[in-house]
Amino acid sequence: MTPQTRPEQRPEERSQQLSQQRPEQQPAAEENVAAPWLRPHPLTVVSTALSMAVLLGGAMLIAGAAVMFNGSFAIGIPLALSGFAAAAAITAIEWHLVRHTRYRVTEERVESRTRLLAEKHRTIARDRVRSVDVSADIWARLVGLRKVTIGTGQNAATAQGDELKLELVTAAEADRLRRELLRRSPAPAASVAEAAQEVAAAQADLSEAISRMRLGWFGVAPLSIATPALGVGAIGGLYKLVDWFSNEYAARTAVDVYQLLMASALVLIPVAAVAVLVAGAVAATALEVEAWWNYRLDREADGTLRIRRGLLNTKSVSLQPSRLRGVELQQRLLLRRLGFARVKAVATGLGTKEQNETAAKSDLGPDMPVAEAQRIAANVLREDDSPVRSPLLRRHPRAALRRRLTRAVAACAAACAVGGAAVAGAGMLGWDWVPAWVWAAPLALLPFALLYAVDLYRGLGSAPQGRYLLLRRGSLARRTVALRTDGIIGWSVKRSPFQRRAGLATIGATTAAGAGVYRAPDLDLSDGLGMADESVPGLLAPFLRRA
Amino acid sequence: MPESPAAAAAPAEPGRLRLRPPRERVDRRAVAWWTAQSVLTVVPLLAVLAACAAFIEPARFWLLLAAAAVGVLGLAYVLVMPRWRYRVHRWEVTDDAVYTASGWLWQEWRVAPMSRIQTVDSGRGPVQRMFGLTSVTVTTASAAGPISIDGLAHWDATEVVDRLTEITQQTQGDAT
């Protein structure tokens, strides 16, 4: 890192710089003319105040009301008001922060600085900007503002991340920043007014609509294995709220419901199950509508893909085609039967699978009919036909099925062994209420485990296909990846002792995009190496031998 | 580009493909280093079990039984693992790629082309230093983790790092 010449900067701040500074002397005066320091919109504070008042204030108000309902006004009233006091304090801090924050976009970099007590200064070189995402939670939308997240798309786990966030700016300014920073030739607009004109002009130009939300797609939202859990959660949440106000009433209701269920179990247990499922379905649909309302996938004039979505909280993710390394089709168990799938981008700089927030960024659309998903896949990759075509996949050897069945049986056997140990332990301790059949209970799950094993095997498939490598795996969520072979930056071949005995290997293609490595488990060693060699000619060849 | 056996292979040729081991072995002292490492894992575990057995009277039999089991398995581990690893761990740097093999029961072979290498580092842990060994770590843009060559003699490691740095500097690009 070359030394910074900014006079007021202390050495410890230099180490915060994310990117390398250019070695030439700082043309401070000149740059200040070209790119003035801008400030976040003052209404940011209103947005913070609103969110804090409702979330903190509201929660404490309910808690306080619950206490008052139970007869203690001396505690209830201060409790109800404490939330608003905290909200006011946080808003005051935010007001100071916003007042002392400035940002600017120069020819070479994006900078933001906050001078309050300590100075925080963050810089990203413009040629390293890979993503500019615009989002707005409901509070920001109420005052018409947007949050802009500028990312460099580095996978390296830098201590403080690799993002620069601007909170909050007007929608027009957000759009200006997005267009300007994603365009490689920088031309900073002098004023916001000028920027608005530029935006209007840019919006008039051609952007191709790739896909739009259809209401019918929300219909499949409840078909998730998480739905029963969501239902239990929703009913549980409601119960907890009642419990706050009157735990006596809540307890009585719970006992009544329980007695009712026990009294005529045959009729009422199915009814209860239906109630849970309905609550879950409503919750799942609500979440899906919130996330994907008004979903639009466009290709802008400069080729950038743009995904916009959200009902209350809106998100806009821009994806430059140069960052795409392929696509993934994800089919969850129940949706697979209905012919629904979700398309995801395999792109650099969207974060790894472990980082959930960023992983959601790779969604190119909600669950939708496979044909539409395939059309999107073909379109974003600019291919005539989607490369993610399952019929092309080759089955993995039968030994892979044997391994999965063995694992299912072994898992059940292990569960039985634990049960047996529990029975033995209980016998020694004299706990005669532990029934002796406990050890055998896991056997009831064996058929399901075996079915799962078979479905896992049926999910396995792989094939080199022209400029793509196709890999498919999974049962509950079956993922088919078409990875562009020029995006493959290495191979990993793994073999366990069992795989060596069965002549199998797990072949992994490493890439800078998406999950970082895409593996084909339990391929025949020779077939797998052949596939790797065919996908990326020359790389593996010097290390291969024919026996 | 070296000729590709797979490309040359007509379907008539029945030979099965396999990976040949990388050319270079790691330093012989690596066996001692891995032994030391395994001893440092097994001994504290045994010590904890023995201490528990000494102080917890009622469970003494079971704890001693567990200690005996850990002792037998641990001894096998200490004796077998380092030698097995030494047979597996190999590396090779060609003009086009880095090729490594590692592991013992679970084994992994990695290949990364020179053009995709981002950084080359070398480092020594405290135990490794005692045996005069160095690890070389080669990262690519992938989140799959770096390729590492463990147990090189200091001198060899320096040579490898210099060579890799030299070759990768000639091939420019953003390595993604």
Automatic annotation (TrEMBL), chain A:
S-adenosyl-L-methionine in keyword set: no
Domain YdbS-like PH: 98-180, 295-377, 463-528
Residue spans of biased composition, Low complexity class: 16-31
Membrane-spanning ranges: 49-69, 75-95, 215-239, 259-287, 408-431, 437-457
Swiss-Prot/TrEMBL keywords: Membrane, Transmembrane, Transmembrane helix
Any single Pfam family the record assigns to this protein: bPH_2
UniProt entry tagged with the keyword Methyltransferase: no
Region (Disordered): 1-34
InterPro entries: UCP026631, YdbS-like_PH
Record protein name field: Putative membrane protein
From TrEMBL, chain B:
Domain of life: Bacteria
Domain YdbS-like PH: start-end pairs: 86-162
InterPro entries cross-referenced by the UniProt entry: YdbS-like_PH
Transmembrane segments: 30-56, 62-80
UniProt keywords, alphabetically: Membrane, Transmembrane, Transmembrane helix
Name of the featured protein: YdbS-like PH domain-containing protein
Organism: Murinocardiopsis flavida
Lineage: Bacteria, Bacillati, Actinomycetota, Actinomycetes, Streptosporangiales
